[in-house]
Design a protein that fits this description.
The complex is a heterodimer. By secondary structure, chain A is mostly helical. Chain A has 12 helices and no strands. Chain B is 75% helix and 0% strand. The chains are: A mainly alpha, B mainly alpha. At the A-B interface, helix 4, helix 5, helix 10 and helix 12 of A face helix 4, helix 5, helix 11 and helix 13 of B.
Chain lengths: 300, 283
C-alpha cells in the first residue's frame, strides 16, 4: 500500500471510528445532521432541475445570520438562518431570470464570496472580544441537548425537515409542479406551469434548508463562528443527495452513510495521521460509481 | 503603482486563467461543459510540482502538469461520452476527486523534499506571450478556418448533422478535451511554477469556475475570451494594488472582490446569449 499504511488496519479504524462504540455512533449522528439538511437542500433543487451548487455558501450565510440574531433568542436565530440561506440562494435565481446568468456558476461564485464574508466577519466586526483568534465569541443561544450526550435538538429538526421535504415533493401540487419542471421544463411550460416561478421557489427553499443546516451546526455543535466553519458540508450534500437518488426519505440513509464516512475519516486522521480529505475523495468515488452505472444520465 | 506596472501584473497574473478560458471555449464549442476544469487545474498544479522536483527541470514540470490535467480530462471524457453521464454532476465529482486526492497527497508528503523545498522556478516566462498571442491566434484559425474546426463546431451545434456527414462526434469531442488538457495543464503548471513557488492546497481558488464564466461573457468567441480575461485581470490586479497600499476595503473583503467582479461579468451578458446548441447534451 502506498504511503506505508496497511489497508486492513485502516478499514478497521474507519469502522470502529464511525460505528464501533457509543461515542463513535454519537459522532456519526452529529455529522449526519448537517449532511441530511444539505442533502435535502440539494435534492429539492436538483429535482426541480435547478443546479444549486451553492449549499456551502448558503450554509455559511445561515450560520452568520443565526449568530447575529442569537441574542434575540433561539427561535430568532433559526428563523434568521432560514431567511439568510433563502436570500443568498435567491441572488442566483434572480440573476438567472434577469440576466440569464447560469445558476451553476453564480451559486459557486457566491460560495467563494460567502467564505470571504465569513473571514471578514470573524476577523472584524464579529471577532471575539479578546481579539485573540479569528473566531467569534460564544453564540448567545444554543439548541438543547439530550441528557448527558452531545446530541442536540438539531437531529429532530433535520428529521422533521426530511419528512416535510418528502411531503412537499410527493404529496402537494406544488411539489408535482417542481418535479414536472425538473423532469421536462418545456413540457411543464406547455402544461401551464410558470417555470420561472418554480425556479425561484425551488432555489429559495433549497437555500433556506442549507441555511438552516448552518444555523443548526452553529447552535448545536460549534457554538462559535470561525474561518473554516463550513468544512465542505455544502459540497458533501451533493454526494448525499445523489446517493439517495434525490429522494428525501432515502437522503436519511445516505446522510448516515456519509456521516459515518466523515467520522471514520476523522478517526483515521487521529489514529493513523491520514488526512481527513480522504472523505472528500470517498464522496467523489461514490458519485462517480453511481453515474457510471447510469444514474444522472445526460439529456439527449 | 504606475498604470503600466498594473497592466503588466494583470497580464501575467491572469495567464493561467486565460489558458483555462481558451481550453474551455474549445470544449464548449464541441458541445461539452466541463465543470471539472477546476479540478483539472488543481491536479495539474500538483503533478507539475512533483514532476519538476523529481526531474529538477521546469520543462518536465510543465509536461507533468499536462499529464495531470489529461488524467482528469480522460476521466471527464469517459463519464461524459462513454457512460453518457450528466456533465455537471461529472464535473462536480471530478472537482471533489481532485480536491480530495491532492489534499491527501499533499498532507502525506508535506514533510518530504517535494513540497517542503522550493520548486524550480521558470527562467524566462515564455508562457505569457504564448498564451496571450500565439495560442488564441492558432486556436481561432483552427476553430473558424479549418475543416477540423468546422466539424468540431458542428459537434457542438448539430451532432446529428456531423454524423450524417460521416464524421465522428466523439472523436471531435475527445480532440477538444485533448486541447483543453494541454492548455489547462500548462495553466496549472504556470500557476505553481511561475506565479507561486510550489503547491498549496486548493491553490486554484476558483479560477476554473471564473474561466467558465468568462467563456459565457465572451459569447463563446476568442475575442470575447481575451477581452473578458483582460477585464477580469485588471480588476484582480487593482485588488492586489489596493491590498499593497493598505487602504480601502478590509483584507478579507478584498479577497472576495474577484468573485464579485465575475458575478458582475456574468450579469453583464445583456440581451440574448446563444450557447452552442448541443451544449451539455449527450451525443
Amino acid at each position: 500500500m502506498a504511503f506505508g499504511h496497511d489497508p486492513r488496519e485502516l478499514l478497521a479504524i474507519l469502522a470502529s471510528g464511525s460505528v464501533g462504540s457509543r461515542f463513535a455512533i454519537e459522532g456519526t449522528l452529529l455529522k449526519s445532521v448537517p449532511l441530511l439538511l444539505t442533502g435535502l437542500s440539494v435534492a429539492i433543487a436538483f429535482r426541480a432541475g435547478v443546479w444549486n451548487i451553492g449549499a456551502e455558501g448558503q450554509f455559511l450565510t445561515g450560520a452568520l445570520a443565526a449568530h447575529v440574531a442569537a441574542p434575540y433568542g433561539l427561535a430568532a436565530a433559526i428563523a434568521a438562518a432560514l431567511v439568510a440561506g433563502a436570500l443568498w440562494a435567491s441572488i442566483a435565481s434572480l440573476m438567472r431570470l434577469w440576466r440569464n446568468a447560469p445558476e451553476v456558476l453564480t451559486t459557486i461564485l457566491l460560495n467563494f464570496i460567502a467564505i470571504h464574508l465569513l473571514g471578514y466577519a470573524v476577523n472584524g466586526p464579529l471577532q471575539e472580544a479578546s481579539g485573540k483568534y479569528p473566531q467569534s465569541d460564544t453564540t448567545a443561544a444554543a439548541l438543547p441537548t439530550f441528557g448527558a450526550t452531545e446530541l442536540h435538538a438539531g437531529l429532530l429538526v433535520a428529521l422533521v425537515v426530511c419528512i416535510l421535504a418528502w411531503l412537499l415533493l410527493y404529496r402537494t401540487t406544488e411539489g408535482l409542479r417542481l418535479r414536472a419542471t425538473g423532469y421536462n421544463a418545456a413540457a411543464a411550460k406547455h402544461a401551464g406551469i410558470n417555470v420561472d416561478a418554480q425556479l425561484v421557489r425551488a432555489m429559495a427553499v433549497s437555500g433556506a434548508i442549507a441555511g438552516l443546516a448552518g444555523g443548526v451546526e452553529l447552535l448545536g455543535v460549534t457554538h462559535r463562528l470561525f474561518e473554516r466553519f463550513a468544512a465542505g458540508y455544502g459540497y458533501s450534500g451533493i454526494a448525499v443527495a445523489l446517493l439517495a437518488e434525490l429522494h428525501p426519505l432515502a437522503t436519511l440513509a445516505s446522510a448516515l452513510f456519509f456521516g459515518a464516512l466523515t467520522t471514520g475519516a476523522g478517526e483515521l486522521q487521529r489514529a493513523a495521521n491520514i488526512s481527513a480529505t480522504v472523505a472528500t475523495f470517498g464522496q467523489a468515488i461514490v458519485i462517480l460509481t453511481l453515474i457510471a452505472f447510469g444514474r444522472m444520465r445526460a439529456r439527449d | 503603482m504606475p498604470a503600466i506596472d498594473l497592466l503588466l501584473l494583470a497580464v501575467v497574473a491572469a495567464t493561467p486563467l486565460l489558458l483555462a478560458v481558451l481550453g474551455e471555449l474549445v470544449v464548449e464549442r464541441a458541445g461539452m461543459i466541463n465543470l471539472g476544469i477546476e479540478g483539472m487545474m488543481l491536479a495539474a498544479a500538483m503533478t507539475s510540482v512533483v514532476a519538476a522536483q523529481l526531474t529538477h527541470s521546469v520543462v518536465l514540470g510543465f509536461a507533468g502538469g499536462v499529464a495531470g490535467a489529461a488524467a482528469v480530462g480522460a476521466l471527464f471524457g469517459l463519464f461524459a461520452m462513454v457512460f453518457r453521464a450528466d456533465q455537471i454532476v461529472t464535473g462536480t465529482a471530478l472537482n471533489l476527486l481532485a480536491l480530495g486526492a491532492t489534499g491527501f497527497v499533499y498532507r502525506e508528503l508535506q514533510q518530504s523534499a517535494i513540497f517542503s523545498t522550493a520548486a524550480p522556478r521558470i527562467g524566462r516566462d515564455l508562457v505569457v506571450p504564448l498564451a496571450w498571442i500565439v495560442v488564441p491566434l492558432v486556436l481561432a484559425l483552427v476553430v473558424w478556418r479549418s475543416m477540423f474546426g468546422l466539424r468540431l463546431r458542428a459537434s457542438g451545434e448539430h451532432p446529428a448533422a456531423l454524423r450524417a456527414a460521416g464524421a465522428s462526434v466523439h472523436a471531435h469531442r475527445w480532440a477538444a478535451l485533448g486541447v483543453e488538457s494541454l492548455l489547462v495543464g500548462i495553466a496549472g503548471a504556470h500557476l505553481a511554477l511561475a506565479l507561486s513557488s510550489g503547491f498549496a492546497e486548493n491553490m486554484t481558488a476558483g479560477r476554473g469556475f471564473i474561466a467558465l464564466s468568462i467563456v459565457i461573457f465572451g459569447r463563446w468567441k476568442f475575442k470575447g475570451a481575451l477581452l473578458g480575461t483582460a477585464v477580469f485581470g485588471v480588476a484582480a490586479a487593482a485588488q492586489y494594488a489596493l491590498q499593497a497600499s493598505g487602504r480601502g476595503l478590509p483584507f478579507h473583503l478584498l479577497l472576495a472582490l474577484p468573485y464579485v467582479v465575475t458575478l458582475l461579468i456574468l450579469c453583464g451578458i445583456a440581451g440574448r446569449v446563444r450557447a452552442p446548441e448541443a451544449l451539455g447534451r449527450a451525443e
